[in-house]
Write a sequence for this structure.
DNA sequence: CGCCGTTTATTTGTATGACAAATAAGCCAT
DNA sequence: ATGGCTTATTTGTCATACAAATAAACGGCG
């Protein structure tokens, strides 16, 4: 997932570097950055590349530039917390339980509601896609295959809500949690434990039973929560 | 809310202009933009300013640039749907009922859950802030005062969840809905209708009763939904 | 004729230098 | 001490040149 060798471009590197520094707190809120010319030289890039990066960080709410005053790190409350990069930087810098709890909390709120909505709105095609994903999970022989199918299942379910905001939100949360999922899965010997629960969710969505789908999903998420917590602690 | 006269900067204008064009569909997905030099001249800005804008749009997932190939508009599924700008552009370009419904749906999912979480986690200070907001609503003499206090109430409640992801998500939804709220409020003669429901939510959070808070909020949101729908149709 | 490596042409990426615009801070006169 | 004026500093914008990547054209070879 994480492209290690692939250095996409200079300004991309700068975005990553500065973003990480800010989100991790090494550059505290309110603190002002060196002026562009100096910062550019210090990072060994041209002012052009630096500025392109700063515009992006600015769009993410991390910094704020004004003429004469310079560029300052903004308060945490102004950050685009739901931006994929910002989330990734947080995951990298605070692998504490508390942040994982917040991610899981989001999941607990979103997924059951999404399951219920999907049960109400899914089209025939969407149901077929969901079934295909389930079958792939059932047929999975190794952990990697199962993980791929699992993600596909959740993706299909979200698309079946026909609300792209919901889809987008969850994909963000999922990505962030992915960091820890890898860990949790590596440890679990029998990875197909959750299969029956996925079946329950699928069946409820097929039969258009929102409340049944919601309850099944509540259970599934709460189970996986304890797994993730165990993995993070370890 | 919307700064009409304030033209922040050139690249900011470019971001807005191109962003709007893409989200509205006037620049279709897959379509490739003119090359930078041409596009810059066509928009009467330097290539530098244009590029700074394009990097931001790229970060929002709207476009994708590659050497030799040029810059293309990305599929809708790659957009950062939860980005404040993207949402704003959507609100501006598709004032259809269906999008409002999606926003309201998000609200129906988030707010009750947030109320319940706040009832569990709120600190004494956060409760005090919530009460202050409620008192301001009760004391409001005109619509503007009430609107400000109303927003403050919801803001306080979300902060009381102590989950900044939740806070951030809702503030985005709220901003987007704000466009329509204005309309709905203008028409309602007795704007203080919702006051008793806010009291119920506040009381439940004070007494640390998650389920009561959730139910009260469910009711409040569903009431406001019908108001908004009426307003949008009008 | 068709395949495959090479060259070329085009487009984005990066660097540099110059100037415009805004504005905080210092200065000066009152 | 205060209010307006000047100045110095920093970001904002522009123009130009070159580097790097790579799709497309080319050309040699089986």
């Amino acid at each position: 997932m994480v492209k290690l060798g692939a250095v996409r471009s200079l300004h991309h590197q700068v975005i990553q570097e500065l973003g990480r520094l800010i989100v991790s707190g090494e550059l505290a809120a309110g603190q002002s950055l060196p002026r562009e010319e100096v910062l550019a030289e210090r990072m060994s890039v041209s002012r052009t590349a630096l500025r392109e990066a700063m515009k992006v960080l600015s769009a993410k709410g991390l910094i704020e530039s004004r003429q004469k005053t310079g560029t300052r790190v903004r308060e945490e409350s102004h950050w685009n917390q739901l931006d994929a990069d910002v989330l990734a930087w947080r995951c990298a810098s605070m692998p504490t339980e508390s942040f994982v709890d917040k991610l899981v909390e989001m999941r607990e709120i979103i997924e059951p509601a999404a399951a219920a909505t999907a049960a109400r709105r899914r089209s025939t095609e969407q149901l077929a896609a969901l079934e295909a994903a389930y079958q792939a999970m059932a047929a999975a022989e190794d952990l990697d295959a199962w993980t791929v199918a699992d993600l596909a299942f959740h993706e299909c379910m979200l698309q079946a809500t026909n609300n792209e905001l919901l889809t987008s939100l969850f994909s963000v949360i999922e990505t962030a949690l992915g960091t820890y999922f890898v860990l949790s899965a590596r440890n679990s010997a029998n990875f197909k434990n959750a299969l029956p629960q996925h079946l329950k969710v699928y069946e409820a969505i097929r039969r258009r039973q929102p409340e049944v789908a919601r309850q099944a999903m509540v259970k599934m998420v709460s189970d996986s929560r304890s797994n993730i917590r165990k993995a993070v602690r370890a």
